[in-house]
Design brief:
Elements: H1 4-11, H2 26-42, E1 49-52, E2 57-58, E3 67-68, E4 72-76, E5 86-87, E6 98-102, H3 108-122, E7 126-130, E8 141-147, E9 150-153, E10 157-159, E11 162-167, E12 172-177, E13 180-185, E14 190-191, H4 195-309
Parallel strand pairs: 2-5, 6-7
Antiparallel strand pairs: 1-4, 2-3, 4-6, 7-8, 8-9, 10-11, 11-12, 12-13, 13-14
């Protein structure tokens, strides 16, 4: 059965906006958007974590003036769906566990005095402030943790040259990176990115991958070209060796041909010599035969003369 209080509450209007700008300027707005998007991406696999920013939190049923709009806040243990505003009584009384304010000139006093008191009363376990310009907070990044209902300053450390404060609620580190607020995951050491930064990181990673592929392909081409050049050099060396071997063979063949020619010439000289010797021998034999014939004729004549002297006719039968 609906009670009169519930009927009265339903008739009360809880505005979703006060018509005021989301942030004092672009700088504050950029960090507000970054914090909300980075945390949403980080907790996107958690259906029991709600991340919002510059959203009205109504913390007293029936009183629309009991409202606060942290620049960024995180609630654990509630559904992660979208809301026009956050009404604590509709979330089983669950108030934010983490709140972040981007401090500016117009919000400095409220962020430093009013909101810490309210957030402590609401049980916000951790409250952070960040001053993008460094004009109103020193240091620019400050954190407070609720201890026995009272906020105590959280100790800052220096990590890789960056001021860092560990959020136990988020399991993350809030760091000042060259004056910029960045969330870091201590388990991976990686910075949390907003949607555009994540898109740019993906594009850069894809570009790096494509460049690596191009470099690998170029390296393969260079290696293939080097192999081709080496193979061509081997072919040229082989052809040169073949040409040298052919030249040696041709030289050897020429030497053989010359040697054979010289042998043939020597044989011809020898044949001519033996022919001349044979001819000389034949001349000598002919001369000796002629001499023997002449000597025989001479002896025959001498004998015939002696016979005539003896009055014997040498021609008688």
């Amino acid at each position: 059965m609906t009670t009169s209080l519930e009927l009265l509450t339903e008739e009360i209007e809880y505005p979703d906006s006060d018509g005021q700008p989301m942030a004092e300027g672009d700088i504050q707005c950029d960090y507000l958007i970054y914090a909300r998007q980075a945390l949403r991406i980080h907790f996107q696999s958690r259906p029991d974590v709600y991340v919002a920013g510059n959203l009205f939190i109504y913390y007293e049923q029936g009183n629309p003036k009991a409202v606060v709009a942290p620049d960024t806040f995180v609630v654990f243990g509630v559904a992660s769906g979208k809301r026009h505003s956050y009404k604590v009584w509709r979330e089983a009384g669950k108030t934010p566990d983490f709140a972040l304010e981007i401090t500016s000139k117009s919000t400095k006093k409220e962020d430093q005095v009013t909101k810490p008191t309210l957030y402590a009363a609401l049980g916000v376990q951790e409250y952070f402030q960040f001053d993008p310009t460094g004009d109103y907070l020193h240091p620019q990044l400050q954190g407070r943790r609720l201890v026995n209902g009272v906020y105590q300053s959280m100790a800052a450390t220096v990590v890789s040259g960056m001021l860092s404060i560990r959020s136990q609620v988020l399991g993350l580190e809030l760091r000042l990176q060259d004056g910029d607020l960045r969330f870091y995951d201590p388990l991976t050491g990686q910075v949390l990115l907003a949607h555009e930064e994540e898109r740019q990181a993906r594009l850069q990673a894809e570009q790096d991958r494509l460049q690596a592929e191009r470099d690998r392909f170029q390296a393969e081409q260079d290696r293939f070209q080097a192999e081709q050049d080496r193979f061509q050099a081997e072919q040229d060396r082989f052809r040169a060796e073949q040409a040298q071997a052919q030249a040696e063979q041709d030289r050897f063949q020429a030497e053989q041909d010359r040697f054979r020619a010289e042998q043939a010439q020597a044989q011809a000289e020898q044949d001519r010599f033996w022919a001349e010797q044979a001819q000389a021998q034949a001349e000598q034999d002919r001369f000796q035969a002629e001499q023997a014939r002449l000597q025989a004729e001479q002896r025959s004549q001498q004998l015939a003369e002696k016979l005539r002297q003896l009055n014997i006719d040498p021609d008688a039968p």
